[in-house]
Target: 7-carboxy-7-deazaguanine synthase
Amino acid sequence: MNKPLSLRINEIFFSLQGESSTVGLPTTFVRLTGCPLRCGYCDTEYAFHDGTVMPLTDILAQVEATGARYITVTGGEPLAQPGCLALLRELCDRGLRVSLETSGAMDIAEVDPRVTVVMDLKTPGSGECDRNLESNIGRLKRVDEVKFVICDRRDYEWSKAKIDQYDLGSRVQEILLSPSFEQLAYRDLAAWVLADRLPVRMQVQLHKIIWGDAPGH
Model:
């Protein structure tokens, strides 16, 4: 008899989406434990190891109990757990709008096509730029989103080059540029984007503006 699928969950919480094209919408977040990357600006180091093993059925029950229409599966790096694929599929089967926050370092080939992938291409300032998996670019769908966390001018220029190299403007619905929290001034990134008339969405982390670094938001 097959053992029921379980995943290690760091937290499940209901909050406002702080980033991406659904920013500001009430959303239930499922944060999975574990991440093979160590980005210098990481703000979820508590998710590297802390977590509770939960059966998939219990996870789904908790998510449905929140009553949210929008669900974000995040981490850490959620795809580091193979069971994440089944979780995404089951959430979609329930008619929920599901997004996956993932790095550019994990293969997205098997992610359910109903899921909106928000892929964080790692910039040089992250310290993990060499981990980006180039094959992922060809697997992006039109409804997906690509995010760049910008630490400095070098990161900005690198991101501009990648946007051109991969023709991201015609490949995905949103290109997101986010200043690294307390590392790059909002107005600096805004000025660069406007000066270059860059076809991107600049975003700030709404959840941090409201709640700071408190977990569960």
Summary: The chain has one domain: 6-208. The longest strand covers residues 6-16.
